[in-house]
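Example for tutorial group B:
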């Protein structure tokens, strides 16, 4: 695409032809159906059945969007897509796949596809995907800033993230890439890492930014009320239903629905969520007629979703429906100096709110903050800084101002030695060992496992890897303790 001219002449002239849609589908009946739907909506469509014809049409015609079946008779669709994008990288490719090939669709997204749709295609979902492409293809395309550029750091701060570490810059680049599509985003990360901020950043950078962002915590709502919260209810459908309620899915129509703690959803509701994803329709409790909605799904969990599938707590088919574009929120201990940027930014903000003259963190505090494991991640840092600001009058933050709960965490960490008397922080490790001597072996084992789980943010799979035992063994031990 040629870049738009500067000044008021940047708009496309009214007579300029709209780029055609190249439809690549080898099943003739589906090809006729999709072509009819697209032409009825006013699109010019070039339809072909093979990869060789598709590449020839792509090279010879003014194609803006490619609707591509990944399974073709003469060539793999993913390989064809890569050749097309090599010729014209600005082309938006929407891949189509059968339900059993979702993993291939994920590979296509990672290779540059704009969106993927599961066959048989829902007409409303198809048109929403095309509209999403159309709303972004006329926008000027800006080359991504280098990973170390200041602009990348600034944009991260604007989106709510604080920190200029390489891992966060790479995450922000992924967010910008996935935001353009309609693909479902699955955000993973420990508690307190900022998963909802990540979801908000995806929404804010997407063509749906003007639409609603509806967040629902599946773990904080009683299971008997969750269906009503997600899909709504009709007046009189159950005791206490004194009026119609639209539900989160309908409220997010035209925008984004964020389902936090998705692995805590009850199995019965998982089935209804799967149907919602397949049909893009909601049926409120007590209603008889479904309602079409246009919603982008983003979900999040602090658990290992595949482990939840293995344990039978989460439907496998729903997992593959949702696990399209995974984003991992890194724990704070993997973000280097970000902990200091977060702490100093929070200190300045809270000091303004409380009207207190804090000036920064002193050297030993910085050394300690770098060394601490921060199991509560960013949320824990914010709570610590808030505590300091509320309970102290100002000046430079010193070790004596830190809350006692934070001091006890140094039992498991030895920060770097600092000039002002930090040499004594390693001593509690010996005391911790002395505390175990004389106790029963079973009690020692339980204490070590519980400490490891806390260090790993409650993740059983990660704790099992550290302890070099299988997750199933660890689950059995935890269940045994719960019964005793």
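The residue assignment follows.
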């Amino acid at each position: 695409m040629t870049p738009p001219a500067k000044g008021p002449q940047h708009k496309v002239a009214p007579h300029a032809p709209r780029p055609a849609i190249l439809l690549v589908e080898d099943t003739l009946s589906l090809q006729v159906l999709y072509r009819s739907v697209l032409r009825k909506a006013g699109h010019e469509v070039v339809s072909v059945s093979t990869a060789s014809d598709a590449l020839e049409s792509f090279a010879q015609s003014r194609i803006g969007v490619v609707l591509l079946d990944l399974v073709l008779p003469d060539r793999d669709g993913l390989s064809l897509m890569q050749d097309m994008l090599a010729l014209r990288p600005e082309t938006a490719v929407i891949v189509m796949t059968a339900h059993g090939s979702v993993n291939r669709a994920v590979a296509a997204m990672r290779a540059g596809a704009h969106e993927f749709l599961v066959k048989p295609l829902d007409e409303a979902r198809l048109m929403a995907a095309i509209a999403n492409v159309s709303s972004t293809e006329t926008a000027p395309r800006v080359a991504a800033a280098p990973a170390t550029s200041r602009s990348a750091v600034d944009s991260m701060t604007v989106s709510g993230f604080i920190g200029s570490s390489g891992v966060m810059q790479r995450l922000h680049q992924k967010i910008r890439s996935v935001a353009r599509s309609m693909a479902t985003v699955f955000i993973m990360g420990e508690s307190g890492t900022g998963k909802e901020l990540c979801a908000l950043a995806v929404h804010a950078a997407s063509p749906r930014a003007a639409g609603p962002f509806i967040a629902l915590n599946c773990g904080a709502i009683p299971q008997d009320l969750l269906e009503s919260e997600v899909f709504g209810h009709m007046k009189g459908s159950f005791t206490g239903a004194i009026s119609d309620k639209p539900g989160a899915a309908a409220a997010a129509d035209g925008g984004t629905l964020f389902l936090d703690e998705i692995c805590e959803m009850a199995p019965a509701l998982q089935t209804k969520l799967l149907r919602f994803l397949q049909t893009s329709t909601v049926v409120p409790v007590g209603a008889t007629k479904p309602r079409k909605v246009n919603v982008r799904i983003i979900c999040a969990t602090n658990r290992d979703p595949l482990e939840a599938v293995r344990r039978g707590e989460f439907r496998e088919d729903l997992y593959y429906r949702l696990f399209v574009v995974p984003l991992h929120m890194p724990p704070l201990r993997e973000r280097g100096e970000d902990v200091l940027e977060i702490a100093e930014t929070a200190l300045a903000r809270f000091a303004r709110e409380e009207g207190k003259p804090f000036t920064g963190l002193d050297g030993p505090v910085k050394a300690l903050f770098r060394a601490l494991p921060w199991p509560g991640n960013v949320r824990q840092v914010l709570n610590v800084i808030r505590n300091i600001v509320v309970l102290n009058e100002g000046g430079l933050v010193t070790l004596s101002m830190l809350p006692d709960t934070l001091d006890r965490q140094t039992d498991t960490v030895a920060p770097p030695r600092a000039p002002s008397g930090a040499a004594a922080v390693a001593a509690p490790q010996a005391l911790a060992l002395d505390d175990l001597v004389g106790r029963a072996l079973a009690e020692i084992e339980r204490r070590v496992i519980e400490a490891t789980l806390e260090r790993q943010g409650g993740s059983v799979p990660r704790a099992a890897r550290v302890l070099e035992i299988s997750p199933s063994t660890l689950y059995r031990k935890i269940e045994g303790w719960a019964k005793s």
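Confidence is low (pLDDT under 50) at residues 1-16, 136-159, 408-431. Compare this with the pattern of hydrophobic and polar residues in the output above.
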